[in-house]
Amino acid sequence: MKKHWPPYNFSAGPAMLPKQVMEQAQSEFTDWRGKGLSVLDFSHRGTDFTEIAEKAEADLRQLLNIPKNYRVLFAAGGASFQFAMVPMNCLRNRAVYVDTGIWGSKAIKEAKQFGQVDVVNALSERDGLQAILPESEWGIEQGFDYLHFTPNETIGGVEFSDAPVVGRGQLIADMSSNILSRKINVEDYAVIYAGAQKNIGPAGLTILIVRDDIIQQPAAQSAPSLMRYSTLAESGSMYNTPPTYSWYLAGLVFDWLIKQGGVDVMEQRANERSQKLYQFIDKRSFYANPIHPSARSRMNIPFTLADESLNARFLEQAEMAGLHYLKGHRSVGGMRASLYNAMPVAGVDALIEFMVEFERTHG
Ligand SMILES: *Cc1c(COP(=O)(O)O)cnc(C)c1O
């Protein structure tokens, strides 16, 4: 393949950051605003970092329209850490977990160690494709503490188009891979959590949005201090040293998002990017996507080649052409294009152009 594109990173996570954000971080790296010091070595309790931390929170509040009775917490440990923290803080009698893929299953496995978990296997088949079972068929028994779901299953490429109606106000969502990519009503949720490395930035940081009454209710007696939402809330996420540099980078991304036009614009772009790629794949018998249109992810698009023996060649040639990390998750195989907020539409155009050319030379 002759053509080469500016490198585009289709990784599912850690994923690409906006170029302007990286350039700003670079320009400030050794000298933040004439201070002569790097954010890396600011004290987390100093006035400079306090300013950075507060601006990041204020910007996120603006972007998601977060009501006053919700706290924003910045935690370490990644989204998987929340698989345990959620039940430690919120599971009293019984929780419902909606399973639509691998991340949901992992959350369920962890929650089961802490109490009664009713599992809804919500991945079903429709017209020979994978779909999300309609809520009317979930068979949920009322009276649960919370309903946990995964709005976007990063590995399978399955996304809810809206929050479930059942359990609104008591929803807990692992929004790791689609936060800030569409408007949400925060009041539908008791807790929202998201690992930062998909749509926000650096790995290892987790953003939490937790309603006050959840923070006030007692956590499991055996819960370590740092795993209690109340500890994080009371200390302003600074019970111990938080991941300061990641917090700063997340703040730069929030600032960038606001300047781009906020979540509305991100939603439009996500729709445009994903529709382009799905429409292309659907027109070709050379390529296929296994998800029903009603449940297709706008963020992660898995696809297969009709002739799987060409997989390795496809990936190798894509890499050479500047299109990186298109390999599907090891449990699914095939390819996966992750199209997060930082991916320009031009990246999808490049991928499609490459796919046309690959089919022409191998089809
Ligand atoms: C990536 C991902 C995780 C895991 O995040 P870690 O920060 O690695 O723990 C959990 N849930 C979803 C939906 C993800 O996409």
UniProtKB/TrEMBL annotation:
Its EC number is 2.6.1.52. InterPro entries: Aminotrans_V_dom, Pser_aminoTfrase, PyrdxlP-dep_Trfase, PyrdxlP-dep_Trfase_major, PyrdxlP-dep_Trfase_small. GO terms for biological process: L-serine biosynthetic process; pyridoxine biosynthetic process. The modification N6-(pyridoxal phosphate)lysine is found at residue 198. It is found in: Cytoplasm. Pyridoxal 5'-phosphate binds at residues 79-80, 103, 154, 174, 197, 240-241. Residues 8-351 form the Aminotransferase class V domain. The keyword Amino-acid biosynthesis applies. GO terms for molecular function: O-phospho-L-serine:2-oxoglutarate aminotransferase activity; pyridoxal phosphate binding. L-glutamate binds at residue 45. Keywords: Amino-acid biosynthesis, Aminotransferase, Cytoplasm, Pyridoxal phosphate, Pyridoxine biosynthesis, Serine biosynthesis, Transferase. Pfam families: Aminotran_5. Binds 1 pyridoxal phosphate per subunit. It catalyses: 4-(phosphooxy)-L-threonine + 2-oxoglutarate = (R)-3-hydroxy-2-oxo-4-phosphooxybutanoate + L-glutamate; O-phospho-L-serine + 2-oxoglutarate = 3-phosphooxypyruvate + L-glutamate. It comes from the Bacteria. Transmembrane segments: none annotated. Catalyzes the reversible conversion of 3-phosphohydroxypyruvate to phosphoserine and of 3-hydroxy-2-oxo-4-phosphonooxybutanoate to phosphohydroxythreonine. Homodimer. This is Phosphoserine aminotransferase. It comes from Pleionea mediterranea.
